[in-house]
Specification:
Rossmann fold, 12 strands, binds NADP nicotinamide-adenine-dinucleotide phosphate, 7 helices, about 35% helix, about 250 residues
């Protein structure tokens, strides 16, 4: 089969490696948010398709047999476009979506709808905040320049936050609990703003926050379209095998 993975996550890369090794023709699509992405399996294409119509045209022109939405859980627009394009082009679609983190005993989470609500949740008094967000979500924090910010992102934050006290850390996960514990302690952080990314690679700060009794202001996951979904690479492989068998049955005379 020709399989198109909408990627940007570790799981997308791992699934791609397994599918390419299994003999499928694989194309990996990246949004282009990261300037130096890790090496990817298969053929790589970078940048938007031009909305659902563009993606539908691509699926038909490239004779894609199966579309896999393995985007980040917060890339809701792309997930919605995937559904619309798959219907338009008559291509099967499955989603690989990492399970969300659930709060456990000792966690101090304040769940908010988005970055603007997170700014309000921090309150007016100056705090020491770890912003574990992508550079696209940082902008609303310019409305609260009274806080100290520790900003960790894969890409440099441009434009920088117009606040007096900001430290930027450029780093790519995985991040361990020990390292994040040291980071939070060194910078005397008293609040973390985070997405609920799920998985182990970004969980270090959540576990470290629990250990230190620090509040986590958690951006809720956006609503995603209902499509056949799995949470792990192994489950995705089983679903792909099933889709292949189904397709084979369909095309038999
Ligand atoms: P988005 O809002 O869902 O997507 C915006 C547009 O980017 C899409 O309409 C599409 O453009 C293009 N796009 C997104 N993913 C693509 C892919 N895999 N291949 C080709 N084009 C793609 O997603 P976002 O702007 O990337 O990010 C939204 C949230 O997800 C942010 O919170 C961000 O930090 C987080 N996130 C994203 C990624 C990622 O790799 N995208 C990774 C980690 C975190 P067209 O309409 O032109 O097709």
């Amino acid at each position: 089969m020709h399989i198109l993975i909408l990627g940007g996550t570790t799981e997308a890369r791992l699934l791609g490696e397994r599918l390419a090794a299994g003999g499928h023709r694989l194309t990996m699509s990246l949004a282009g948010r990261t300037h130096a992405p890790l090496p990817m399996p298969g053929q790589v294409r970078i940048g938007g398709f031009g909305g659902p119509e563009g993606l539908a045209q691509y699926l038909s022109a490239e004779r894609v047999d199966l579309l896999v939405d393995a985007t980040h859980p917060y890339a809701a627009a792309m997930s919605e476009h995937a559904v619309q394009a798959a219907v338009r082009a008559g291509v099967a679609l499955i989603a690989l979506r990492r399970a969300a983190w659930e709060p456990v005993d000792g966690d101090r989470w304040t769940e908010v709808a988005g970055a603007q609500e997170a700014v309000r949740a921090l309150g007016p008094a100056a705090r020491r905040v770890f912003l574990a967000l992508g550079r696209q979500e940082i902008a609303p924090f310019r409305d609260a320049p009274q806080h100290f910010y520790l900003v960790r992102s894969v890409e440099p934050v441009d434009p920088p936050l117009p606040a007096a006290d900001v430290i930027y850390v450029q780093a790519r996960g995985p991040f361990s609990q020990e390292n994040d514990l040291a980071l939070l302690t060194t910078h005397r952080v008293d609040a973390i703003v985070s997405k609920n990314s799920g998985g182990a690679a970004a969980y270090g700060k959540i576990a470290a926050a629990r250990q230190l009794g620090i509040e986590v202001i958690m951006l809720r996951r956006p609503a995603l379209p209902r499509v056949p979904s799995v949470a792990t690479v192994d489950e995705a492989l089983a679903l792909v095998a099933h889709a292949g068998a189904f397709r084979g049955a369909e095309t038999k005379p």
